[in-house]
């Protein structure tokens, strides 16, 4: 979905900022159906039609969320999970981008790296969990590594494709401007690969959260996944829903960070917006 | 053929230049001498190898055979301006250039783009982008400036302005110019030597001596135009 958005033909001529299509007078209409669903949900819960062991009422969920924050349970769990994601992401991103540079910038590098990456890519990495537990136990290491593995592939594939997709005509220009190889890579190849790398970044962050959720279902003693698992034991659907909402909020947050990064780093193609 | 001794007083000298793409021989033992400050227009039918010759002179084609010697520096302006889109206009001019920023600003001023120095290339109009491309080539003070149909994508009015600009810049800096074009009138208005490339060789080589600025109704140009069209295998208007 992000691919389509990024590859939409760039409007290259200056123009004024587009006016928002919807005015605030009509914006509330978009809230009608979500609010209606919430209301029906609340009514179903209150009348006993929807028992709390299947799904808690919206009001209960809100109260539970407030309580979990007050008691410090939720902040601690989020802290533990965030740390796992950040560590795993940093390791996976570094590995993915480094391998993409090795493969993208030289033929021998491509021959050495790309076949392995294409084979490993085909492995269902959630299926590696049993092996990871055998190899690394049930501590933090397998969870962080699972996130790292999940992150590395989208970044590798997109950065590699980005490097190879750099316009050959610009490489010719670099040649006629007497740019050396280092300058060619710095001024043409890497900036040219950046848009595709950022697509990879968004994909990898999305899959990082997914990997974390799966990893945390396995033998965790802290973190959001542990909180959710623990709640299941006691049929606390309210806590489960709070945990899921926090996961999605964190996912949206990291995604918007990448969007911000894109807007800044790729301002050259939106230059017409100032 | 140019009556010039090989290797003497030339910026580029080509002997027996040959290039084939598969079975198709595009350049067939071509000879050409380019003198310093000469403004040459290279005409030819589509697929006649004009751009292949230009790319060979620019050092972009490593599969040509024959002798090719270019003294001094070469700069190229391509058909599409080929500005690096993630570098602002000024940074495009100075890319790979080890010279003070004033030179780049002066080059931008010469093509009338001072105001757009900090603009992103994608926000430039076609004419502006082509002028930036010219500035990027000229700031390197080349001995040989190669122009690969740089005007063909411009609208008619912009083209007239840029024609004048190119002649001005050439008169001021005096690089040798090789302009590849398919437009006979453009060649006659700008160049002082017009070549026709046919079957892999220079088939026609004539000087243009009419003083600049030139007008299409100059009698010398009218005569030359008919000759060139005949050399290109096109029947001139008014005859059949």
Itemize the secondary structure elements and their pairings.
The complex is a heterodimer of chains A (274) and B (240).
Chain A: H1 2-7, H2 24-27, H3 32-46, H4 58-70, H5 73-105, H6 107-121, H7 129-136, H8 140-164, H9 168-176, H10 181-216, H11 224-233, H12 237-265
Helix pairs in contact in A: 4-12, 5-6, 5-8, 5-10, 5-11, 7-8, 8-10, 10-12, 11-12
Chain B: E1 12-21, E2 24-34, E3 39-44, H1 50-57, E4 65-70, E5 74-77, H2 89-94, H3 101-110, H4 126-138, E6 144-148, H5 156-173, E7 176-180, H6 184-190, E8 193-198, E9 201-207, H7 219-231
Parallel strand pairs in B: 3-7, 3-8, 5-6, 6-7
Antiparallel strand pairs in B: 1-2, 1-4, 8-9
Helix pairs in contact in B: 3-4, 4-5, 6-7
Protein model, in words:
The complex is a heterodimer of chains A (274) and B (240). Chain A has a single domain (57-273), classed as MetI-like (MetI-like fold, Orthogonal Bundle). Chain A is 74% helix and 0% strand. Chain A contains 12 helices and no strands. Chain A has helices at 2-7, 24-27, 32-46, 58-70, 73-105, 107-121, 129-136, 140-164, 168-176, 181-216, 224-233, 237-265. The longest helix of chain A has 36 residues, at 181-216. Chain B has one domain (12-231): P-loop containing nucleotide triphosphate hydrolases (Rossmann fold, 3-Layer(aba) Sandwich). Chain B has 7 helices and 9 strands. In chain B, strand 1 and strand 2 form a beta hairpin. The two termini of chain B are 29 Å apart.
